[in-house]
């Protein structure tokens, strides 16, 4: 299995480029790059397709979970069902799928109960502080205005990343950053600011050559020589 840190979380969002067979290919590419370079990569495929990514040698996180117990919750996503589908973790409160603070807290608690890794997204340092009280495994700071922009948060707004890292005093909680990350340089800058990795999507999913983009992404942090 991959090295412990840092982590690259690749969110497939709902792009057509990450759907169906293309989505499966993307997961295989991520798996190959991870094996070859030793950098931990986590894939977040589209939820209805999670089963197609099960039992591969790569961690799979969901893009969302709901704060519910088994029962009558039509259309919702049950933490237990994510586990059945092969997920070992989930994003919570992504910028494109926000939830109120009490629901975030409940999701984190349910993740803990069911052994799922929780990655809570936050749009500001204030939100980082608020969700840190819920003790998720990861907090990803993502300024919404930079999401999908190709302008990396680690270079465009290093202060929000640095301040988020400093705001989390609990050593058990790891801080990631996301928005506009697409190159090895962007990842290196994110780590230099004290993060444990990045959360990204379009820089890889929408790249002409996603495998090349993945190799570039890990090129400056890989413990093994990158040949791709
Ligand atoms: O989940 C990923 C983030 O929203 C960042 O998206 P992006 O890499 O396309 O900017």
Automatic annotation (TrEMBL):
Substrate binds at residues 11-13, 147, 180, 201-202. It catalyses: D-glyceraldehyde 3-phosphate = dihydroxyacetone phosphate. Gene3D superfamilies: Aldolase class I. The active site is at 94 (electrophile), 142 (proton acceptor). One of its GO terms (molecular function) is triose-phosphate isomerase activity. Pathway: Carbohydrate biosynthesis; gluconeogenesis; Carbohydrate degradation; glycolysis; D-glyceraldehyde 3-phosphate from glycerone phosphate: step 1/1. It is an enzyme of class 5 (isomerase). It comes from the Archaea. Keywords: Cytoplasm, Gluconeogenesis, Glycolysis, Isomerase. Involved in the gluconeogenesis. Catalyzes stereospecifically the conversion of dihydroxyacetone phosphate (DHAP) to D-glyceraldehyde-3-phosphate (G3P). This is Triosephosphate isomerase. The gene is tpi.
